[in-house]
Design goal:
mainly alpha
């Protein structure tokens, strides 16, 4: 799921001239929220006990706050990296004409 999310972010960065820091910020957030995903899947992945324990929502809030703080820190210490889209120009069609001076005295070559 995270891979699809990152691919979508990269698409929007490349096609809509968004700040390139957005991709790294998403990776930082995903890495910070990974332990919360582990807890969620460990506790609720099986078709059995689905109730929250008392400390579980607090852990999710803690990981969410850590993700927000990590992304904010990264965003503030990294300079903006926008990609300026360069216009696509048609190739210029030119013919290069080089001067030619025959320095040989070749009598076999006939010019018509």
């Amino acid at each position: 799921m995270t891979f699809i999310w990152l691919q979508a972010i990269e698409f929007f960065i490349n096609n809509y001239d968004l700040d390139a820091r957005l991709l790294t910020a998403s990776i930082v957030a995903a890495a910070t929220l990974f332990p919360a995903a582990i807890i969620w899947n460990w506790r609720h992945g099986e078709a059995g006990r689905q109730a929250f324990i008392r400390s579980e929502p607090g852990a999710y809030v803690l990981f969410g706050a850590a993700a927000i703080m990590s992304v904010a820190r990264y965003w503030n210490i990294t300079p903006a990296m926008t990609q300026k889209a360069e216009p696509i120009l048609e190739p210029v069609r030119t013919i290069a004409v080089m001067p030619f001076e025959n320095a040989d005295d070749d009598s076999l070559v006939h010019s018509s």
